[in-house]
Amino acid sequence: MADTDTVRYDVTDQLATITLDRPGAMNALDIATKEALRAALHRAAEDPEVRAVLLTGSGRAFCVGQDLKEHIGELSQGGGSALNTVAVHYNPIVNAIAEMRKPVVAGVNGVAAGAGMGFALAADYRVVAESATFTTAFAGIALTADSGLSWTLPRLIGAGRAADLLLFPRKIDAREAERLGIAQQVVADEELAAVSTEVARRLAAGPTVAYAAIKESLAHAAGHTLAESLEREGELQVRAGDSEDHHAAVAAFVAKEKPVFRGR
Ligand code: T3D
Fold first, then answer.
1. What is the mean pLDDT for each group of 10 consecutive residues in the chain (264 residues)?
2. Residues 250 and 166 in one domain
3. Looking at the structure, do residues 50 and 138 belong to the same domain, yes or no?
4. Ligand 1 atom showing the smallest separation from residue 68 Cα
5. Which of 15, 125, 155, 247 is the most exposed place for a label (fewest CB within 10 A)?
6. Which of 206, 208, 200 is nearest to 240 (CA)?
């Protein structure tokens, strides 16, 4: 997949940067954008040269979710095509982010609403611009949570707070997002691109096999008992321990050298 009219895709230093690029529409998700984003994420997942992904937006929004100006036309046509987009687009996009066997960083440059908030929360790490805001938005247009928010939001901020934000959608600012545990870092607007790229580059130069195992163990533990999680940790540690990076890093430690991770 190359750049499309609404999604840019760039690989530099083993980091794939995917930029939602409909600034005039606040990166609202029309069908073309959803399909291009899904393709870009699948491409990054499958490319062995890519070891981390940065998802960001251009202009003053990260992503305001479903394009409601397109949606109203789809609704008026009936036939369910407006409503099957969760299965056809949103779920594959969120699965691609969450199940990517490499870290995904969201560089939240502006407002993240509805599915846009869902995409940001599906990522492993959020660097958030000081002026950015989050809103679940769904109940405001008589919809329920999608794009994984029913799963990610309570896990990040607790069930009570998640219910509050879903039942009474309001804009939360970057500092509140940080206090709640949604944002891992808040930075000045003019530093967002540089800091989020630096975080993602650092991950792209890290132990990719171990990172994939960390993602998998966290997701597994969210739905399993301690005993089951211990068992899965053990299996995943065998995988990480078998990696070339683990062997090289232990040798580097013993030799008092800095490890170089090759992602294998
Ligand atoms: O079946 C299904 O489709 C299910 C799938 C659901 C997935 C979802 O994501 S549902 C949630 C959809 N998103 C929303 O409901 C958010 C709606 N937007 C807002 O609440 C606010 O616009 C924001 C909080 C995001 C931003 O507020 P603010 O004050 O910064 O900007 P604004 O003035 O409201 O909007 C600026 C422009 O962006 C405006 O257009 P205009 O008047 O300049 O031509 C506005 O209409 C447009 N815009 C904002 N959000 C959307 C949008 N256009 C299309 N779709 C949007 N989602």
1. 88 98 98 97 97 98 97 82 89 98 98 98 98 98 97 97 98 98 98 98 98 97 97 98 97 96 96
2. no
3. yes
4. 55
5. 247
6. 208
